[in-house]
Specification:
Elements (H helix, E strand, L loop, with lengths): L1 H15 L9 E9 L2 E12 L2 E8 L12 E6 L2 E8 L2 E10 L2 E8 L2 E12 L2
Antiparallel strand pairs: 1-2, 1-8, 2-3, 4-5, 5-6, 6-7, 7-8
Length: about 120
């Protein structure tokens, strides 16, 4: 009887707990509100065998320098953080997912600007 109760509790906890990092998986239209104006990009977050991968493409500025793929990716429940680089310039992203939106910030050196996103499609 005791083993059955423990097993039931473990199964309940597994099915009711939020998926670790899964809330950020998918495609997003993300916008940073920089001093020179808004900068939007399409961000794609994918679950991989080794963790997660993050890639982004600027919207409407295809000839501008593109940052590399995400590194130092941390997805913990609804919270996320990752870094991308353009040459030696490191850009740090962080935020919190709430359903099909997220709010956060982008940090470039000492500058921090708001960073918000809307889900385009859910990931797997």
């Amino acid at each position: 009887m005791r083993i059955t109760a423990v097993l039931a509790f473990v199964l309940f906890a597994c099915f009711t707990a939020p998926a670790f990092g899964q809330s950020f998986v998918g495609s997003w239209t993300a916008t940073a509100e920089a001093p020179g104006g808004k900068v939007s990009e399409t961000v794609t977050v994918v679950k991989t065998a080794d963790g997660y991968s993050i890639n982004a493409t600027l919207v409407g500025a295809e000839s501008a320098p593109q940052a590399g793929p995400g590194t130092d990716i941390v997805l913990n429940g609804d919270n996320f953080s990752y870094k991308r680089s353009i040459g030696d310039l490191v850009i740090t992203y962080s935020g919190v997912v709430s359903g099909n939106t997220f709010t956060g910030q982008v940090e470039i050196g000492e500058f921090k600007v708001p960073y918000n996103g809307v889900r385009v499609s859910a990931g797997k």
